[in-house]
């Protein structure tokens, strides 16, 4: 039986679809979409239950985010960024920061931003002097807090500031994922309390259940895998609908052409396989932390491997669907055209770079 969270995501799909063009035009999610996400509690999908969140496990989060990404890539991408960044703040930051962000603050308890260590952090009494310039603050337009990263000695430090203590620079004019508000921003030099920080690669959860023991990289994989599975699935659904009535001059309908049938079956199988294996490895990881252990090196790398591989499989499926759609995918408005733009924007993210497969292979082979 579907979880209430999954049912909520499915019920909102028509809204996300109807608002997609407006989001692309505005460069950010529409007020109607943001309000619906708040109302459904989806921004708190992975926030610990002790802070009023849903505390979804890895598989449930993967299901929900896949469904939203299937409805609209920009909505799903902004949400996955908000969900993970908000979850990290809730699980890993210190008590005073969490109290302000989640229980007594006046800003929305929604977080966005980039954790890449592109800034500076200098230890001072009780905290850090931080500054930096960052990119890709997906979901920032409706966030109350922005995340950032810095190298501090041999530590990769993640930290948060209220959005009004940052400068939003804009610069989001892109081919795909246009509605995500993935803008550049700057953190002017300021001193923050240590409670507003955590160690990016070695954080231990201070609250919440077993899922948070998976750590930042594995939890981040959930959203990127969901994006690939959702957008790839939607593209295959769209070409299925288009092919029945599509025929080039002098040719039989697309759905009756053997070349199309062969490639359709191959891409459908590949998407089904990607979904099954991705859900399986995330299920294994969740089972490990539920049992009180951690995923071993092979399984941890399988999470990244499945995420990047699913992205490649989905990109191939989207290209297949778009190519066979002819002008149906070319002319706006087109769901399939939007899938094409969004998917190819998503492939450029560092998190699904081909080097992640090389790193996974080294673990699978038992050495570097």
Please, could you describe this protein's structure?
The protein has 368 residues and is α+β, with helices and mostly antiparallel strands. It has three domains: 101 residues, Butyryl-Coa Dehydrogenase, subunit A, domain 1 (Orthogonal Bundle); 89 residues, Butyryl-CoA Dehydrogenase, subunit A, domain 2; 155 residues, Butyryl-CoA Dehydrogenase, subunit A, domain 3 (Up-down Bundle). It is 53% helix and 15% strand. Strands 1, 2, 3, 4, 5, 6, 7 and 8 form an eight-stranded mixed β-sheet that branches. The longest helix has 33 residues. The model has no long low-confidence stretch (mean pLDDT 96).
Which descriptors would you attach to this protein?
alpha+beta, 11 helices, single chain, 8-stranded mixed sheet, globular, Butyryl-CoA Dehydrogenase, subunit A, domain 2, Butyryl-Coa Dehydrogenase, subunit A, domain 1, Butyryl-CoA Dehydrogenase, subunit A, domain 3, 368 residues
Q: Would you kindly provide a brief summary of this structure?
A:
The protein has about 375 residues and is an alpha+beta fold. It is built from 11 helices and 8 strands. It folds into 3 domains: about 5-105, Butyryl-Coa Dehydrogenase, subunit A, domain 1 (Orthogonal Bundle), CATH 1.10.540; about 110-200, Beta Barrel (Butyryl-CoA Dehydrogenase, subunit A, domain 2); about 210-365, Butyryl-CoA Dehydrogenase, subunit A, domain 3 (Up-down Bundle).
């Amino acid at each position: 039986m579907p979880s209430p969270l999954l049912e909520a995501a499915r019920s909102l799909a028509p809204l996300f679809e109807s608002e997609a063009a407006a989001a692309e035009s505005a460069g950010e999610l529409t007020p109607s979409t943001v309000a619906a996400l708040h109302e459904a509690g989806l921004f708190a999908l992975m926030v610990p239950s002790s802070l009023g969140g849903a505390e979804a496990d890895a598989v449930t989060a993967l299901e929900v985010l896949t469904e939203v990404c299937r409805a609209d890539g920009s909505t799903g991408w902004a949400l996955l960024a908000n969900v993970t960044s908000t979850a990290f703040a809730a699980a890993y930051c210190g008590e005073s920061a969490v109290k302000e962000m989640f229980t007594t603050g006046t800003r929305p308890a929604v977080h966005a931003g980039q954790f890449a260590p592109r800034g500076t952090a200098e230890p001072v009494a009780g905290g850090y002097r931080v500054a930096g310039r960052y990119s890709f603050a997906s979901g920032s337009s409706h966030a109350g807090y922005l995340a950032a990263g810095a190298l501090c000695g041999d530590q990769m430090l993640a930290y948060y500031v209220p959005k009004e203590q940052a400068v939003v620079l804009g610069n989001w004019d892109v081919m795909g994922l246009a509605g995500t508000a993935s803008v550049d921003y700057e953190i002017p030099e300021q001193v923050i309390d240590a409670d507003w920080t955590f160690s990016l690669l070695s954080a231990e959860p201070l609250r919440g259940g077993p899922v948070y023991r998976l750590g930042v990289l594995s939890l981040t994989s959930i959203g990127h895998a969901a994006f690939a599975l959702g957008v790839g699935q939607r593209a295959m659904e769209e070409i299925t609908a288009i092919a029945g009535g599509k025929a080039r001059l002098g040719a039989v309908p697309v759905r009756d052409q053997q070349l199309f049938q062969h490639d359709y079956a191959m891409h459908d199988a590949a998407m089904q396989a990607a979904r099954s294996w991705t859900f399986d490895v995330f299920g294994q990881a969740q089972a490990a932390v539920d049992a009180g252990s951690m995923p071993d090196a092979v399984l941890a790398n399988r999470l990244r491997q499945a995420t990047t591989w699913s992205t490649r499989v989905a990109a191939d499926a989207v290209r297949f669907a778009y190519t066979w759609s002819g002008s149906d995918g070319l002319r706006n408005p087109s769901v399939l055209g939007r899938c094409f733009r969004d998917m190819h924007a998503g492939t450029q993210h560092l998190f699904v770079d081909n080097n992640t497969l090389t790193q996974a292979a080294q673990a699978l082979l038992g050495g570097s």
